[in-house]
Structures
1.
Amino acid sequence: MDTVDVIVVGYGPVGQTLCALLGHAGYSVAAFERNGAIAGSAKAIHCDDEIMRLMERIGAGPEIREDAATWATYDTRTAAFGGELLRRFDWSATGPHGWQAHWSFYQPHLEAAIDRVARATGRVLVRFNTEAIELAQDADGVTATVRDTATGEQRTVRGRHLVGADGANSFVRQALDVPVTAGASGTKRLVIDVAERRPKSFELENGHFLDPRRPGCLFRLGRSHRRFEFHVFDHESRADFTEARLWDLLEPWGGPDDFTLCQRPVIRFQETMADTWQRGRCFLIGDAAHTMWPFAGQGMCSGMRDAATLAWRLHLLYRGIAHQSILDTFTADRMANVRAWTDRARAVGEPCVMLDPDQIEARNATMRAQLAEQAVAAPPAPPGPTAFARVGDPTAGAGGMQGRVAIGDRTGLFDELVGHGFVLISTSADTLRAIDPDRASALGDVGVTIARLGAEITDVDGAYQRWLSDLDADTVLVRPDYHVYGASTGAKDGLDLLDGFLSALTRGVR
């Protein structure tokens, strides 16, 4: 029987991200994927600056950006050509994490990049055409029985923990008998992905066309692919959409000389939320734990955040730094954020799937008024995790940021020059001087990097000064998943922040 630190069931982008994070940290991982290769189909198309920062951390960023395209506007129009603009989200700015705020990609390219860096750690074993068929856990670990889908051969593997990243129809979730609460169900959509044979551009590049005869949307998928979606009416089925019918739908944009068809599934958007994302030593992440409508582009992103949040917990547990009960805060740490993104995706999407003429008229009038008043803005990210955060701290769970810094004659983004993991960022010399050798040793054991701005590290654009001012603090402790654990002002408050953090690790729960 093979023995590893972590078993990962499902090797899509979320499972790959977890494997890469754990592999980089030095832990052995066995990943099992029932499909025959990575990226059996393209689903996700968008990531934000936080996820690009995470991809940079694991080493996949440069390869992803070779094909990914920056995403400047997210529009809603009455028609794809010559339609009236009803709503525009300006996505052109650099995000708080130091990268362009929004990117589009073609999922097979993204997965290939993450897969390469995960395997390059030398700690990740991936087996395709392999499905999990049985799980058993005890006080010391989890045993999984897996089966080769081609030969039927079975084998067992033992891990300290097991993570289900195996999608909306998760075997792991079913095996753990975790209930699922269903939320809003959306309309059916025909999804057509194409590869461009030659570069093309349209008036509407990324967004929705709300033609009531057949509403839909189109998006760039990186630099060489596009996605078109069309409403599927109740009387229609997938069989109605023959290849000839697909080309009829695509005719306003191009034909076989312009595009190569890649996939054409008919899907229905569905919200789901597993009641818990942990059973003992087993966890659920990504679509195995939650699904949402795609209109905010946060489904895959949320799953990757799950992976990042779970990875640092396992890392501290395996190093003997944290009490095992730190894992018990995982569900609470992530669920509120995912619920907020789910609500936001629905709010963005509901106006785009209307068919009733009266509703459409009211929607258009409302959107026109908001656009005229310049009242439309891409909303900020929902609140972050607070299940492992400083108690009573109003900054807890706030999103982190990344600016340009300089150390000596080197200038670059913070992560590149300073590093990853827990980071204590401070402009307070008094606070840093007050950290005695015992505290410094304890923080070092955890892997906390201490970054003093103004002395060793120059805040090139003043971004950190502005951020600390917004937090009303001179010191902030940031978690490895880029969320604020807590912030402080002055040496006494700073030591209280650090002592509370160290205590929270050893006693598990806040």
Note: The two ends are 38 Å apart (CA to CA).
2.
Amino acid sequence: MTTSQKQPSEPVLRKPLWLKRSLPKGENFSYVRSLISKGNLHTVCQEAKCPNMWECFSNRTATFLIMGSQCTRNCRFCNIDSGKPQTIDPMEPENVASASAAMGLSYVVVTSVTRDDLPDGGASCFAETITAIRRKLPEAHVEVLIPDLQGDPEALGVVLAARPDVLNHNIETVPRLYPQARPQASYKRSLELLRRVSQHRPEIPGKSGLMVGLGETRDEMLRTFADLLENGCRILTIGQYLQPTKLHLPVERYVPPEEFEELKEQALSLGFLQVASGPLIRSSYKARELRDAFDDSRGEATEH
């Protein structure tokens, strides 16, 4: 089912002032957009209509979206199209590495659509992309935001063997809302993926992200925090769900900035080492700063 075939939802709520952002502008923005187009690449910034795209592109950063722009799943919160997936471009890893070098990146974030049609869920594509970036930019750090790989531990092992500096897998929402928000995903399977990362490659930080505003309760959020911690996740992002179109799930509530601060403090008090929480926070937003702060936090925890 494509995005255009999704059933319409409730009318879009008016956004509060704290969610207003400036329009894209500047030479850097145009340069990054042109570079991505010429390289036949995709970014989650563009495909998912990220509200931070203008800021990231203007700062010559982007989150690369590999394996095409068509997802094999149909999550009701996501703007990325679902449908027949595209053929894998064998030059994509090198193109991502070349674009990263041209942008002068020292921290590269790579994600993908979900490719349930591939035997390994796209794990080898992630590994090849990490390797290509490291070959082109040996000093760069690489963070990957991966799908659940259908729970295949061998596929996850392929990604981990390529030694990403951070492995992110978003839990997205509380388990009660999975049937309506992520009908083809599994809360348990996502937690299991994070647990395997912490067990088999404890030196690679496990990271995850949650949306708010879909109808979750505070108690449900805290239980999900506890589940993530129990399964080895130590870096957390929390952001406001924004309805991409009237065909997607409606926003049940716009959470004010002060509540994001409260959620951050609660998550830190439970045991997360680093938390980014705010209305416009996305899983890859200022990823390097979050990783650097995590390293500092881990060092302090070791000293004590």
Note: The two ends are 53 Å apart (CA to CA).
3.
Amino acid sequence: MRALAAVGVIAAGIAGSAGQSTAAPVCARAASPSGSDSAPGTPSAPFRTAQRLADSLAPGETGCLRAGTYEQSVTITRAGTTLRSWPGEHVTLLGRLWVERGADGVTVEGLFLDGRNAKHLPSPTINAGAVTFRGNDVTNRNTGICFLLGASDMGNNVKWGRADEATIESNRIHDCGRLPATNHDHGVYVEAASGARIAENWIYDNADRGVQLYPDAQRTLVTGNVIDGNGTGVIFSGEGGTASSDNVVEGNVITNSDVRENVESWWGGEPGHGNVVRGNCVHGGAGDHGDGGINAADGGFESSANLMDAPGFVNRRANDFRLAQSSPCRGVARTPESMPGPPRPKARGARHRAVTISVRSRPARGGRRLVIRGHARARSGRLVTIRIRSRRGAHVLARTHVRREGRFRAVRRVHARRGPVRVVAVLANGARSRSVRVRGR
């Protein structure tokens, strides 16, 4: 039996993280970018790599990563173990994270998980039972799927392992999926799992679905999440002889999907049954035609008691999805009162705006020719609306899209006006530039 003489007891919690336990973790082993994999792995003599740390743990033990970036893919094979950040420290794992079949009861918490990998495989991938991801920041910088729960082949014969009773809780899950959108890359993809719980996460700005339940998602509970600015919010779906059933989507804020609906279904065979969408706050986006963006045309789910109103986030442009005190969604949603995931690193230098523009004005017959150029901290393909305001009122001057490296451009002719006009660029998520004053003719 492994000796535990070198166990380090860490007293500090991770400040500001809503998704993590306040109890002091016991770090049986540790790793540090300045350590060595030939070391004993104690807090005073840590390993160097996250993989060596994960491989060293016995059931019930916690491995802690010291501050820094670990550039490697990690496969967790030891059941009942916990991999987490050293309390209060910023830890980034850059590479694919895979919880392999048989590694039941694993917990991963408090990490910045950047899943970029050479093969663009989903990360994190879960192929074991009762796995928990709590209090992490998860992305892959728009290179593929983020969370994949269970994996099967197209005949729905489970090939790698199911992800039954998984818990995805209090994470930030964002900027997942290739751009332009492919309709295949999602923030949370529940492929082959029963009894999953997806709760109190912020799931935002993902290329395709925020949460995809396809083709074999059974008894999933999706509750208390903010699901905003994704290609689609939530989809119930199936294929062939398998259909996702008995899933409950309740108490979420599901808003501003920029490709299709906030909630929808699609069935490649018989539709699922027992799927429920109730008590959510739904609003805005490409598919909201006065119905909150809930499209039940393909059936397979029932919708009731949903509030169709703008959410009133504290600061959407800064990705702060807390609900303001005046938000009408507070009456139905169960979203967290504080930011989930680990504390964000403090910004260095002067803060820059999410959207900036410059306007060049030239005389033209009957008015002026305006050339509007700008930059947005947004993914390629995002809609940009150019608005103009004068003494006569305000209206939309042009619509364009963010191109490579965040740039956008529009050219329009403005009819002769008395006095100056002001031009502003607005992203689909509500972020806007400062207005630019343009002289009248």
Note: The first strand starts at residue 8 and ends at 9.
4.
Amino acid sequence: MSNLYILSIGGSLIAPDEIQVDFLKKIKNVLEKKIAPRTASAELRRGAARFAIVVGGGGAARKYQKALKEFNVNAAGLDEVGIAATRLNATLLRLALWPMAGNSIFLSPEDVEFENEQIVIGGGWKPGWSTDYVAVLLAKKFGADCVVNFSNIDYVYTKDP
């Protein structure tokens, strides 16, 4: 799909502890300049840029996981609460981007389609899979050339730091 951009946005950029409203406004401002307005013709909208955005869990995921470690919850359980945090952040971003984004977040990259939407947003999918991995699955599914990863880490790692 031409003009498709896959964005993986780390939850620590959206909500490390507090929600980063200024960051959300910057994202909205950039996307408003890149997509066709909803009032545009169907033909114009088909040829316009499209975005699949996958959002991480940020501070909420870390806080919930830290609490659950006190109860000796296993890795799958920690991932479950982390996925819930990614979906909360995805919902926050979707509503902040209203009316550009769709009416719901996607729960699985298998379900993503661009029939009437230029921006689709989701979070985590399966335990053990990072949101960056979900973004790569979307790139593969749609034949995107690259994934843009927004993160606040200082380095690129070959394994979980």
Note: The mean pLDDT is 90.
